[in-house]
Amino acid sequence: MSKISKFFKGGGSAASKGRGGPSPQEALARLRETEEMLSKKQEYLETRIERELAAARQHGTKNKRAALQALKRKKRYEKQLSQIDGTLSTIEFQREALENSHTNTEVLKNMGYAAQAMKKVHENMDLNKIDDLMQDITEQQDVAQEISDAISNRAAFGEEFDE
């Protein structure tokens, strides 16, 4: 069975069939294999086109029939090449979409984990306790500032203080 028929008939592993479908990694691997196979076929067709063009030039005006046959084969190969280009473009688009979907799924999962972690962290926090704590901190900062101001003022020896 060829790679393309395996791809379209679902000739995948028993593990992927048991789960209801292939994993994103399996699907990406298959798409990459198909891309690679089509790229090799592209290269093959390009060399065949070059050969037919060379054959047509070689026969030129000496053997018009052979030159025309070479040009007709070249035209067929170009048509196949064009079809492969379209197929490759479609497969690349599908692969990129699958990669993006997989990335989005992973991001969403991680955001869910982060949300659960935040819930756990905030579980033991009470808004009233936080307000009280913030007021205590503000009061202590004010006291520290007053102490700092008192220490940093010059001692005015001999001057009278207003008590």
Automatic annotation (TrEMBL):
<dbReference type="GO" id="GO:0031902">
    <property type="term" value="C:late endosome membrane"/>
</dbReference>
<keyword id="KW-0963">Cytoplasm</keyword>
<keyword id="KW-0813">Transport</keyword>
<dbReference type="InterPro" id="IPR005024">
    <property type="entry name" value="Snf7_fam"/>
</dbReference>
<dbReference type="GO" id="GO:0009898">
    <property type="term" value="C:cytoplasmic side of plasma membrane"/>
</dbReference>
<dbReference type="GO" id="GO:0005829">
    <property type="term" value="C:cytosol"/>
</dbReference>
<dbReference type="Pfam" id="PF03357">
    <property type="entry name" value="Snf7"/>
</dbReference>
<protein>
    <submittedName>
        <fullName>Charged multivesicular body protein 4c</fullName>
    </submittedName>
</protein>
<keyword id="KW-0653">Protein transport</keyword>
<keyword id="KW-0175">Coiled coil</keyword>
<keyword id="KW-0472">Membrane</keyword>
<dbReference type="GO" id="GO:0032511">
    <property type="term" value="P:late endosome to vacuole transport via multivesicular body sorting pathway"/>
</dbReference>
<dbReference type="GO" id="GO:0000815">
    <property type="term" value="C:ESCRT III complex"/>
</dbReference>
<feature type="compositionally biased region" description="Gly residues">
    <location>
        <begin position="9"/>
        <end position="21"/>
    </location>
</feature>
<dbReference type="GO" id="GO:0005771">
    <property type="term" value="C:multivesicular body"/>
</dbReference>
<keyword id="KW-0967">Endosome</keyword>
<dbReference type="GO" id="GO:0015031">
    <property type="term" value="P:protein transport"/>
</dbReference>
<feature type="region of interest" description="Disordered">
    <location>
        <begin position="1"/>
        <end position="26"/>
    </location>
</feature>
<dbReference type="GO" id="GO:0006900">
    <property type="term" value="P:vesicle budding from membrane"/>
</dbReference>
<comment type="similarity">
    <text>Belongs to the SNF7 family.</text>
</comment>
